[in-house]
Design goal:
Elements: H1 7-18, H2 27-49, H3 60-71, H4 77-86, H5 91-113, H6 119-128, E1 134-135, E2 138-146, H7 157-173, H8 178-185, E3 196-201, H9 207-213, E4 220-221, E5 225-227, E6 230-240, E7 243-244, H10 247-274
Antiparallel strand pairs: 1-7, 2-3, 2-6, 4-6, 5-6
Helix pairs in contact: 1-2, 3-5, 5-10, 6-10
Length: 278
Amino acid sequence: MVEAVDPYLLLNAAAQLFGKAPSELDEAQWQEAVALAGKESLLQARILESREADGIGVTQEELDEALAGLRAAYDSHTAFLEDLLKNGMNESTLTSAVEEKLRVEKIMQVVAEAVTVSDADVEAFYLANPDKFTHDELREARHILITINTQFPENRRKAVRARLKKIAGELQGRPGSFADLALKHSECPTALEGGVLGKLPQGKLYAELDRMLFAMGEGEDSAIIESPIGMHILRCERIHPAGIVPLKEAADSIRDHLLQSRRSSAQKQWIRSLFASE
Protein backbone atom coordinates (compact mmCIF):
# COMPACT_ATOMS: atom_id res chain seq x y z
CA MET A 1 0.00 0.00 0.00
CA VAL A 2 2.97 2.34 -0.19
CA GLU A 3 2.49 5.23 -2.65
CA ALA A 4 4.61 8.33 -3.27
CA VAL A 5 2.03 10.77 -1.97
CA ASP A 6 2.13 13.69 0.42
CA PRO A 7 1.18 12.24 3.83
CA TYR A 8 -0.66 15.40 4.92
CA LEU A 9 -2.78 15.47 1.78
CA LEU A 10 -3.37 11.72 2.09
CA LEU A 11 -4.53 12.20 5.68
CA ASN A 12 -6.98 14.90 4.57
CA ALA A 13 -8.21 12.82 1.62
CA ALA A 14 -8.87 9.77 3.82
CA ALA A 15 -10.79 11.89 6.30
CA GLN A 16 -12.76 13.65 3.57
CA LEU A 17 -13.72 10.49 1.71
CA PHE A 18 -14.17 7.97 4.49
CA GLY A 19 -13.83 9.73 7.85
CA LYS A 20 -10.84 7.50 8.62
CA ALA A 21 -7.07 7.69 9.05
CA PRO A 22 -5.02 6.27 6.13
CA SER A 23 -3.98 3.26 8.24
CA GLU A 24 -7.65 2.28 8.63
CA LEU A 25 -8.40 2.11 4.90
CA ASP A 26 -8.85 -1.08 2.94
CA GLU A 27 -7.10 -1.47 -0.43
CA ALA A 28 -9.87 0.07 -2.54
CA GLN A 29 -10.29 2.99 -0.15
CA TRP A 30 -6.54 3.50 -0.04
CA GLN A 31 -6.33 3.77 -3.81
CA GLU A 32 -9.21 6.24 -3.91
CA ALA A 33 -7.64 8.38 -1.18
CA VAL A 34 -4.24 8.28 -2.93
CA ALA A 35 -5.85 9.39 -6.20
CA LEU A 36 -7.57 12.32 -4.50
CA ALA A 37 -4.39 13.31 -2.65
CA GLY A 38 -2.48 13.21 -5.94
CA LYS A 39 -5.01 15.54 -7.59
CA GLU A 40 -4.86 17.89 -4.62
CA SER A 41 -1.05 17.87 -4.74
CA LEU A 42 -1.04 18.83 -8.42
CA LEU A 43 -3.65 21.53 -7.89
CA GLN A 44 -1.80 22.94 -4.90
CA ALA A 45 1.46 23.06 -6.87
CA ARG A 46 -0.20 24.94 -9.76
CA ILE A 47 -1.76 27.45 -7.38
CA LEU A 48 1.51 28.09 -5.56
CA GLU A 49 3.34 28.55 -8.89
CA SER A 50 0.74 30.98 -10.25
CA ARG A 51 1.25 34.69 -10.84
CA GLU A 52 -1.38 35.40 -8.19
CA ALA A 53 0.79 33.68 -5.58
CA ASP A 54 3.51 36.33 -5.85
CA GLY A 55 3.83 38.22 -2.59
CA ILE A 56 1.33 36.03 -0.76
CA GLY A 57 2.79 34.73 2.48
CA VAL A 58 1.75 33.37 5.85
CA THR A 59 2.67 35.16 9.07
CA GLN A 60 4.19 33.29 11.97
CA GLU A 61 1.16 34.18 14.04
CA GLU A 62 -1.20 32.63 11.48
CA LEU A 63 0.91 29.51 11.27
CA ASP A 64 1.18 29.17 15.05
CA GLU A 65 -2.57 29.56 15.43
CA ALA A 66 -3.29 26.86 12.84
CA LEU A 67 -0.83 24.43 14.42
CA ALA A 68 -2.19 25.13 17.89
CA GLY A 69 -5.65 24.20 16.64
CA LEU A 70 -4.35 20.83 15.44
CA ARG A 71 -2.49 20.14 18.68
CA ALA A 72 -5.58 21.01 20.74
CA ALA A 73 -7.28 17.83 19.52
CA TYR A 74 -4.82 15.71 21.51
CA ASP A 75 -4.60 15.05 25.23
CA SER A 76 -0.83 15.50 25.26
CA HIS A 77 2.05 16.59 23.06
CA THR A 78 3.33 13.01 23.11
CA ALA A 79 0.05 11.74 21.68
CA PHE A 80 0.23 14.43 19.01
CA LEU A 81 3.77 13.40 17.99
CA GLU A 82 2.84 9.72 17.97
CA ASP A 83 -0.08 10.37 15.63
CA LEU A 84 2.13 12.40 13.32
CA LEU A 85 4.61 9.54 13.17
CA LYS A 86 1.83 7.04 12.54
CA ASN A 87 0.77 9.10 9.52
CA GLY A 88 4.26 9.54 8.10
CA MET A 89 4.94 13.04 9.40
CA ASN A 90 6.84 14.95 12.02
CA GLU A 91 6.45 18.49 13.36
CA SER A 92 8.67 19.93 10.64
CA THR A 93 6.83 18.30 7.72
CA LEU A 94 3.46 19.15 9.26
CA THR A 95 4.48 22.79 9.64
CA SER A 96 5.52 22.96 5.99
CA ALA A 97 2.29 21.30 4.86
CA VAL A 98 0.10 23.60 6.95
CA GLU A 99 1.97 26.67 5.72
CA GLU A 100 1.36 25.63 2.11
CA LYS A 101 -2.30 25.01 2.84
CA LEU A 102 -2.68 28.46 4.38
CA ARG A 103 -0.95 30.07 1.39
CA VAL A 104 -3.29 28.27 -0.99
CA GLU A 105 -6.31 29.51 0.98
CA LYS A 106 -5.00 33.08 0.86
CA ILE A 107 -4.38 32.92 -2.88
CA MET A 108 -7.88 31.58 -3.47
CA GLN A 109 -9.22 34.43 -1.35
CA VAL A 110 -7.33 36.96 -3.48
CA VAL A 111 -8.90 35.47 -6.60
CA ALA A 112 -12.34 35.66 -5.01
CA GLU A 113 -11.95 39.22 -3.78
CA ALA A 114 -11.30 40.44 -7.33
CA VAL A 115 -15.02 39.89 -7.92
CA THR A 116 -17.36 42.77 -7.13
CA VAL A 117 -21.11 43.29 -7.23
CA SER A 118 -22.46 46.72 -8.14
CA ASP A 119 -25.72 48.33 -7.08
CA ALA A 120 -26.88 47.87 -10.67
CA ASP A 121 -26.16 44.13 -10.42
CA VAL A 122 -28.23 43.95 -7.25
CA GLU A 123 -31.16 45.82 -8.80
CA ALA A 124 -31.03 43.71 -11.98
CA PHE A 125 -31.22 40.49 -9.94
CA TYR A 126 -34.11 41.89 -7.90
CA LEU A 127 -36.10 42.86 -10.99
CA ALA A 128 -35.37 39.58 -12.78
CA ASN A 129 -36.51 37.42 -9.85
CA PRO A 130 -39.72 38.92 -8.44
CA ASP A 131 -40.90 35.53 -7.16
CA LYS A 132 -37.95 35.41 -4.75
CA PHE A 133 -39.00 38.60 -2.99
CA THR A 134 -42.66 38.04 -2.21
CA HIS A 135 -43.80 37.19 1.32
CA ASP A 136 -46.96 36.01 3.01
CA GLU A 137 -48.63 38.07 5.70
CA LEU A 138 -46.29 38.58 8.65
CA ARG A 139 -47.07 39.54 12.22
CA GLU A 140 -44.75 41.10 14.77
CA ALA A 141 -45.47 39.60 18.18
CA ARG A 142 -44.46 39.55 21.82
CA HIS A 143 -45.46 37.12 24.53
CA ILE A 144 -45.37 36.50 28.24
CA LEU A 145 -44.86 32.84 29.16
CA ILE A 146 -45.27 31.12 32.51
CA THR A 147 -44.41 27.46 32.42
CA ILE A 148 -46.43 24.70 34.07
CA ASN A 149 -44.49 22.55 36.51
CA THR A 150 -46.29 20.63 39.24
CA GLN A 151 -43.11 20.44 41.33
CA PHE A 152 -43.42 24.14 42.17
CA PRO A 153 -46.62 25.50 43.76
CA GLU A 154 -46.38 28.81 41.86
CA ASN A 155 -46.13 26.93 38.55
CA ARG A 156 -49.06 24.58 38.98
CA ARG A 157 -51.80 25.13 36.37
CA LYS A 158 -54.25 26.95 38.66
CA ALA A 159 -51.52 29.22 40.07
CA VAL A 160 -50.15 29.98 36.60
CA ARG A 161 -53.57 31.01 35.33
CA ALA A 162 -54.07 33.25 38.39
CA ARG A 163 -50.66 34.90 37.86
CA LEU A 164 -51.42 35.58 34.19
CA LYS A 165 -54.87 36.99 35.05
CA LYS A 166 -53.15 39.46 37.33
CA ILE A 167 -50.69 40.39 34.57
CA ALA A 168 -53.58 40.79 32.11
CA GLY A 169 -55.19 43.21 34.55
CA GLU A 170 -51.99 45.25 34.70
CA LEU A 171 -51.88 45.34 30.89
CA GLN A 172 -55.39 46.72 30.77
CA GLY A 173 -54.43 49.44 33.22
CA ARG A 174 -51.12 50.20 31.47
CA PRO A 175 -51.45 49.31 27.75
CA GLY A 176 -47.87 50.30 26.95
CA SER A 177 -46.30 48.14 29.64
CA PHE A 178 -46.15 44.77 27.81
CA ALA A 179 -42.37 44.78 27.37
CA ASP A 180 -41.76 45.74 31.00
CA LEU A 181 -44.14 43.06 32.26
CA ALA A 182 -42.54 40.44 30.00
CA LEU A 183 -39.13 41.33 31.37
CA LYS A 184 -40.46 41.08 34.92
CA HIS A 185 -42.67 37.98 34.69
CA SER A 186 -42.00 35.90 31.56
CA GLU A 187 -40.11 32.61 31.94
CA CYS A 188 -39.04 32.56 28.28
CA PRO A 189 -35.52 33.71 27.26
CA THR A 190 -37.26 36.34 25.11
CA ALA A 191 -38.11 38.14 28.37
CA LEU A 192 -34.72 39.86 28.13
CA GLU A 193 -35.96 41.57 24.96
CA GLY A 194 -39.39 42.40 26.29
CA GLY A 195 -40.93 39.17 25.04
CA VAL A 196 -40.17 39.84 21.37
CA LEU A 197 -40.92 36.85 19.12
CA GLY A 198 -40.05 38.69 15.92
CA LYS A 199 -41.72 39.02 12.54
CA LEU A 200 -43.57 35.74 11.99
CA PRO A 201 -45.30 34.02 9.08
CA GLN A 202 -48.22 31.75 9.80
CA GLY A 203 -47.19 28.29 11.03
CA LYS A 204 -44.07 29.21 13.02
CA LEU A 205 -45.54 29.08 16.52
CA TYR A 206 -47.33 26.32 18.40
CA ALA A 207 -50.73 25.80 16.76
CA GLU A 208 -52.62 27.30 19.72
CA LEU A 209 -50.53 30.48 19.60
CA ASP A 210 -50.51 30.63 15.82
CA ARG A 211 -54.29 30.52 15.54
CA MET A 212 -54.67 33.25 18.12
CA LEU A 213 -51.97 35.53 16.69
CA PHE A 214 -53.41 35.47 13.18
CA ALA A 215 -56.94 36.17 14.48
CA MET A 216 -55.87 39.23 16.47
CA GLY A 217 -55.92 42.87 15.46
CA GLU A 218 -52.86 45.10 15.44
CA GLY A 219 -51.99 46.28 18.96
CA GLU A 220 -54.28 43.71 20.58
CA ASP A 221 -53.45 41.51 23.59
CA SER A 222 -54.76 37.95 23.72
CA ALA A 223 -56.62 36.06 26.38
CA ILE A 224 -54.60 33.44 28.26
CA ILE A 225 -53.56 30.63 25.89
CA GLU A 226 -52.14 27.25 26.86
CA SER A 227 -49.48 25.57 24.71
CA PRO A 228 -47.32 22.47 25.28
CA ILE A 229 -44.76 24.59 27.16
CA GLY A 230 -47.07 26.60 29.43
CA MET A 231 -49.52 29.49 29.39
CA HIS A 232 -49.07 32.71 27.44
CA ILE A 233 -50.38 36.15 26.81
CA LEU A 234 -49.69 37.26 23.23
CA ARG A 235 -49.48 40.74 21.78
CA CYS A 236 -49.85 41.39 18.06
CA GLU A 237 -47.62 44.42 17.66
CA ARG A 238 -47.94 44.96 13.93
CA ILE A 239 -49.43 43.31 10.84
CA HIS A 240 -47.44 43.28 7.61
CA PRO A 241 -49.73 42.41 4.69
CA ALA A 242 -48.56 39.93 2.07
CA GLY A 243 -46.53 41.68 -0.59
CA ILE A 244 -43.13 42.29 -2.12
CA VAL A 245 -39.99 42.87 -0.06
CA PRO A 246 -38.64 46.33 -0.99
CA LEU A 247 -35.30 46.42 -2.82
CA LYS A 248 -33.79 48.37 0.08
CA GLU A 249 -34.55 45.50 2.49
CA ALA A 250 -33.47 42.77 0.06
CA ALA A 251 -30.28 44.45 -1.21
CA ASP A 252 -27.84 43.08 1.37
CA SER A 253 -28.96 39.47 0.99
CA ILE A 254 -28.90 39.79 -2.83
CA ARG A 255 -25.38 41.20 -2.72
CA ASP A 256 -24.19 38.38 -0.46
CA HIS A 257 -25.80 35.77 -2.75
CA LEU A 258 -24.26 37.25 -5.89
CA LEU A 259 -20.84 37.62 -4.31
CA GLN A 260 -20.81 34.03 -3.07
CA SER A 261 -21.95 32.67 -6.43
CA ARG A 262 -19.65 34.81 -8.55
CA ARG A 263 -16.62 34.30 -6.34
CA SER A 264 -17.07 30.54 -6.46
CA SER A 265 -17.39 30.68 -10.25
CA ALA A 266 -14.33 32.92 -10.53
CA GLN A 267 -12.25 30.52 -8.44
CA LYS A 268 -13.33 27.53 -10.54
CA GLN A 269 -12.64 29.38 -13.78
CA TRP A 270 -9.23 30.49 -12.51
CA ILE A 271 -8.31 26.92 -11.53
CA ARG A 272 -9.31 25.71 -15.00
CA SER A 273 -7.02 28.37 -16.48
CA LEU A 274 -4.06 26.91 -14.58
CA PHE A 275 -4.46 23.72 -16.62
CA ALA A 276 -5.52 25.37 -19.89
CA SER A 277 -2.26 24.59 -21.73
CA GLU A 278 -2.65 20.82 -21.19
